[in-house]
Amino acid sequence: MSADDTTPVDWEQARALAYAAGRSAAAAAEPVSLPEADGRTLAEPLRALTDLPAFPTSSIDGWAVRGPQPWRPVGRVLAGGVADPLTEDGTCVEIATGAMVPSGAAALVRIEDSTRDGAGRVSGEPRRHAVPDWRMPGEEAAKGEVLLPPGTAIDPAVIGVAATCGYESLSVYPRPRAALLVFGDELLTAGTPGAGRVRDSLGPQVPGWLRRYGAIIDPSAIAGPVQDTLEAHLAAVRGALRTADLVCTTGGTMHGPVDHLHPALAELGAEYVVNTVGVRPGFPMLLARVPGEDGRSRFLAGLPGNPQSAVIALITLVAPLLAGLQGRPAPALPTVEAASVVRGRGNDTHLALARLDPSGRVATPVGHVGSAMLRGLSNAHGFVVVRPGTEVAAGDLVPFLPLPLVTGERP
C-alpha cells in the first residue's frame, strides 16, 4: 500500500491488519522470574508440574481417625510434615490445616466437634456435607494439565497459580518499547492557549494509553514539538526507531504544506500496513512497517493531530498491534445495549463516545464529542460502534470498543 493509495480501509479490517502485523513481528519469548512476570504475557502453556494438591491435604484443624470411636491418639501431623500411616482401628492423629492426611484415615473430625475422656481418648462425629474436610490429590489439577493457554495476560492470580505449581520463572513475550513524537509548531507545552497557539494535550496523555496496552515508554522516549520540516521529522523518527519497537507520532498525517510524515516514511523505505481508515472521528490515521538496520521491522503509527481522533487512531491501530506484539489474543468487542439513538456516518464506521451504566451492559452517549474535544472522552468508558450505512436505535445490541481502564477500576 502506497502513500498515494488513500482508499479508506474498513475499520474492522484495519484492526485485523494491525493485529496480524504485530503477531508476525512478536519477538522471541524470554524467561522471567515470577515477581517480574506481572503484566507480561504467557508464551507457553502453564501446565501443572504435579497433581494439585500433590497429596491428600486437611482443610481443618482436628483429628484424622480410623475405625470406630473412641479413638486413641497416636501422634500429630503439622503442615509441612510427612504423616505416618494409621494402621490400627480405634486410633487417630491430631492434624493441622494444610497438613498431609495419613493413609489409612477414614475421616476427619473438627476440633470443635470433638471431646476427650479422662483417658485422653477422642470422640466426635465427622461432618457430612458437600465440601469434604480434606482435598484429594489432583482435585484442582492433574499433573501435565494445561491450566492457562499461551497468550494469557499475567496478573497476580496467574503468578499465584504458577507458584502453587512450583514454577520459579515463566516464559513470556517481551514488552514492546514505544516512543512518542509530537509534531506541530503551533503547540504549546506549558501555559494556557492563545494568540493562535494551542496547548499540546497528546504528549501528556498518549504515554498513559500506551502503558495501559502493555508498552514500555520512558520519559526520555517522548519528544516534541518536532519542528515542521522534513529534515527534523526524519531525524526525530530515525532517533526514536533506534530504541523503540513502535513510534507513535501526532499530527502530520495529511498531505498539507507542513505535513512531512508521508515523505519521511518514503525516505525510510517504510511499507504501509494501513493508510487511512474509514472511521469517524479518527481520519486520517496510518500504520507503517519500517525496516530496521538489524533486519527486524519496527512500526510507526501516525495519529491525527485532533485529540479525540488521535485516541481513536490509537485504539484502532495501536491497541491490536501491541496485542499482537505481546502474543495476546486479538482484542474482542463486547456487546452492550444502546440507551438512545446513535446516528451513522455514511460509508464510514462511527465510533460514538458513551458511558456504561453500573452493570456495564447499557451504553449512553456523552456530549462534547468533536474530534478536537477531550471533555467527552474524559467522561466515557469507550465507544459504541456504528457500522457503515446503519444507525443505532434505543435498545439495540451493539458492539462496544472499551477504553483501557485504570487497574482495578470498573464502570
UniProtKB/TrEMBL annotation:
<dbReference type="Pfam" id="PF03454">
    <property type="entry name" value="MoeA_C"/>
</dbReference>
<dbReference type="Pfam" id="PF03453">
    <property type="entry name" value="MoeA_N"/>
</dbReference>
<comment type="function">
    <text>Catalyzes the insertion of molybdate into adenylated molybdopterin with the concomitant release of AMP.</text>
</comment>
<dbReference type="GO" id="GO:0006777">
    <property type="term" value="P:Mo-molybdopterin cofactor biosynthetic process"/>
</dbReference>
<keyword id="KW-0460">Magnesium</keyword>
<dbReference type="GO" id="GO:0046872">
    <property type="term" value="F:metal ion binding"/>
</dbReference>
<dbReference type="InterPro" id="IPR036425">
    <property type="entry name" value="MoaB/Mog-like_dom_sf"/>
</dbReference>
<keyword id="KW-0501">Molybdenum cofactor biosynthesis</keyword>
<protein>
    <recommendedName>
        <fullName>Molybdopterin molybdenumtransferase</fullName>
        <ecNumber>2.10.1.1</ecNumber>
    </recommendedName>
</protein>
<keyword id="KW-0808">Transferase</keyword>
<dbReference type="InterPro" id="IPR005110">
    <property type="entry name" value="MoeA_linker/N"/>
</dbReference>
<dbReference type="InterPro" id="IPR036688">
    <property type="entry name" value="MoeA_C_domain_IV_sf"/>
</dbReference>
<dbReference type="InterPro" id="IPR005111">
    <property type="entry name" value="MoeA_C_domain_IV"/>
</dbReference>
<keyword id="KW-0500">Molybdenum</keyword>
<keyword id="KW-0479">Metal-binding</keyword>
<comment type="pathway">
    <text>Cofactor biosynthesis; molybdopterin biosynthesis.</text>
</comment>
<dbReference type="InterPro" id="IPR001453">
    <property type="entry name" value="MoaB/Mog_dom"/>
</dbReference>
<dbReference type="InterPro" id="IPR038987">
    <property type="entry name" value="MoeA-like"/>
</dbReference>
<dbReference type="GO" id="GO:0005829">
    <property type="term" value="C:cytosol"/>
</dbReference>
<dbReference type="Pfam" id="PF00994">
    <property type="entry name" value="MoCF_biosynth"/>
</dbReference>
<comment type="similarity">
    <text>Belongs to the MoeA family.</text>
</comment>
<dbReference type="GO" id="GO:0061599">
    <property type="term" value="F:molybdopterin molybdotransferase activity"/>
</dbReference>
<dbReference type="InterPro" id="IPR036135">
    <property type="entry name" value="MoeA_linker/N_sf"/>
</dbReference>
<feature type="domain" description="MoaB/Mog">
    <location>
        <begin position="179"/>
        <end position="324"/>
    </location>
</feature>
